[in-house]
Amino acid sequence: MENFNLVKYHVQSAIRAALAESNGLKEEAKRLRAQGNLRLMVMSDAELWELSQMLSHPPARTVESVYRELIESIEERRKTASEWMEALTAKPTEFLSRN
């Protein structure tokens, strides 16, 4: 079995949240983003660095600057946890098949 990659899963989930929001599923997007907040908080420094590498586009946005932005973002999420934690208890949206 292949090892689980938290960073790749985080990116895929962020895309799912954006898709949910663009499809008008605001509560689903809110829940997925809250899960993303938690994932960021539990990532190791190595995982945050890997995510920074994915999100950077040198020379305009270096890996180091993205890493610093992520650290600042995590601190902000910790301060505002009471605002988004409740979304974690929301029931996932049931998607209808297109058949």
Give a short account of the largest sheet.
Answer: none
Would you report the number of β strands? 0
- Topology as H/E string? HHHHH
Residue-averaged pLDDT: 90
Number of domains: 1
- Measured as a percent range, the helix fraction is 55-70%
Structural class: mainly alpha
Give an account of the 3D structure.
This protein has 99 residues and is mainly α. The protein has one domain. The protein has helices spanning 6-22, 26-42, 45-55, 63-79, 81-84.
What's the helix and strand layout?
Elements: H1 6-22, H2 26-42, H3 45-55, H4 63-79, H5 81-84
What is the structure about, briefly put?
The chain is an all-alpha fold.
What labels would you give this structure?
67% helix, mainly alpha, single chain
